[in-house]
Structure formats: structure tokens, C-alpha cells
């Protein structure tokens, strides 16, 4: 069954007129009157609807059933990736949503390219579309929060997670992370050039423990995907890995 996001209130029994972008998508998929579709608007529910009217520019559906989805992780993850090339950052956003993050805070760090206000506005609109598409694909009915790109020092003050990590591939002190139940975590991901030593130290002063994922140097997008997967497996709802990991924590 095709699944679409609509930025509209949805109520059982309603005859809902769909927005233009959904109408276009329905026509691309060659749907017909009488077909069933799933709708969601970010309220945590999926709504089954039957297409009652459909043309190239117009569509209405009857809302027949609602279902509260229970596929959100109990672990609230705030991902804080530094800005990188747009296509690679899109990949981070897409995969982070699929993997279950709750919030994405794009970070402007020392080695990231500065964006104009106009570019920030257009990037925000684009990233929201990437998030919605990833929610449609991954059957999430709750939309992750997206913050505007934030300066590194300000971003450190934004999070109040139980545990906070900053990825650093050059940290030398290795400790074993003791597994214990947590409900929230934040992780900072550096740009292509990584974080500066000053930034890593500043993050430490704000309670961010240094974390090394591998003895190899990972690309920023690889590190983000790996970090979220690891956190979901160790503390979240993946439930695949129960043994301790050797991580760097200071």
C-alpha cells in the first residue's frame, strides 16, 4: 500500500482533499479510484484511506481506519552532524531518520563552509523533504525535529541528553563503555576535516565524552550512520548486540 505524508489534520470518516504534491505522486504511481492508501501527518498514527476522486490535479480520499504505530525507539537520539557537501549531508539525514533519530541539529564547526541566510533557508526546506521521504519509506509516523544550522558553541548548549558523545578518531585513551539503560543520547559528528582540538576540548567541558568508532578513519556520513546504528543496538531498540563495546570515553 502506498504511503503519503500530508500536512493536514486527519479524522476518521472525513473526506479529505489531498495537497498537490501527493496528487502528483499518486498519478506517477498510477493509482486509481477505489485504491487504498496510507496517510500520516506526524501525530504518531497511520490512516488507511480509500481514493474517492482522482484526476491529474485533484484527489480526495475517505479516511476509514487509524492505527497508532509503536515503532519509535525508547532511546531518544539527537544527532549533531557538522555541515558537509550537500549530497553527503542528505545521506546522513535520510539514514538517520530511517535508523530512528528523534532530532537532527546541523552544526557549523571550524572546518565547515559557512552558508548564507538564503542558502540556509533553502537547505532547511530541502532537508525537511528528505526527512518526510525517509519517514514515508521507513513507516515512521512521528517526524524527527530539525533545527537550523547552529554554531558549534551554541549547539553544545542545546542538548540535555543523559549521555553525550563527540566523535574523535585521534583519541588515544581507550576504555570499556559499561552498558546501562539510558533514555536519551546526543552525538556530535565532525566534518571532512574533523573537529579541531579546541572544539573537542570545548565539547568535553560541556559533558561530551570522546568516542572513537574505529581504528580506521571514517567519512563523516559513514561515521554518522555507524554511530546511530551502534547506539540503537547498544541502548535502543535494535536489540542485536548485548555485549560491551570497546569505545573511547573520557
Question: Would you spell out the secondary-structure blueprint of this structure?
Answer:
Layout: E1 3-5, E2 15-17, H1 20-28, E3 36-40, E4 45-54, E5 59-68, E6 76-81, H2 86-99, E7 103-104, E8 107-108, H3 117-138, E9 145-146, E10 150-151, H4 152-156, E11 163-167, E12 175-176, E13 184-189, H5 197-205, E14 209-211, H6 220-234, E15 246-247
Parallel strand pairs: 1-3, 6-7, 6-13, 7-9, 8-10, 11-13, 11-14
Antiparallel strand pairs: 2-5, 3-4, 4-5, 12-15
Helix pairs in contact: 2-3, 2-6
What brief labels describe this structure?
250 residues; alpha/beta; Ribosomal Protein L25, Chain P; Alpha/beta knot; 6 helices; 15 strands; 25% strand; disordered C terminus
Amino acid at each position: 500500500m502506498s504511503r503519503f505524508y500530508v500536512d493536514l489534520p486527519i479524522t476518521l470518516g472525513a473526506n479529505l482533499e489531498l495537497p498537490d504534491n501527493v496528487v502528483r505522486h499518486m498519478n506517477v504511481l498510477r493509482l486509481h479510484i477505489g485504491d487504498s492508501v496510507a496517510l500520516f501527518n506526524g501525530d504518531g498514527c497511520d490512516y488507511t484511506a480509500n481514493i474517492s476522486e482522482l484526476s491529474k490535479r485533484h484527489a480526495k480520499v475517505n479516511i476509514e481506519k487509524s492505527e497508532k504505530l509503536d515503532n519509535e525507539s525508547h532511546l531518544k537520539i539527537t544527532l549533531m552532524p557538522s555541515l558537509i557537501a550537500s549530497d553527503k549531508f542528505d545521506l546522513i539525514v535520510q539514514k538517520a531518520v530511517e535508523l530512528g533519530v528523534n532530532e537532527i541539529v546541523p552544526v557549523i564547526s571550524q572546518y565547515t563552509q559557512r552558508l548564507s541566510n538564503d542558502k540556509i533557508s533553502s537547505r532547511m526546506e530541502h532537508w525537511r523533504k528528505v526527512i518526510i521521504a525517509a519517514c514515508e519509506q521507513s513507516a515512521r509516523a512521528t517526524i524527527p525535529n530539525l533545527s537550523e544550522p547552529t554554531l558549534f558553541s551554541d549547539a553544545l548548549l542545546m542538548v540535555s541528553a543523559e549521555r553525550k558523545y563527540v566523535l574523535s578518531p585521534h583519541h588515544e585513551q581507550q576504555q570499556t563503555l559499561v552498558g546501562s539503560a539510558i533514555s536519551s543520547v546526543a552525538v556530535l559528528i565532525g566534518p571532512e576535516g574533523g573537529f579541531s582540538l579546541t572544539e573537542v576540548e570545548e565539547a568535553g567541558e560541556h559533558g561530551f565524552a570522546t568516542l572513537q568508532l574505529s581504528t580506521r578513519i571514517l567519512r563523516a556520513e559513514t561515521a554518522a550512520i555507524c554511530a546511530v546504528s551502534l547506539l540503537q543496538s547498544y541502548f535502543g531498540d535494535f536489540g542485536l548486540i548485548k555485549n560491551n563495546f570497546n569505545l573511547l570515553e573520557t
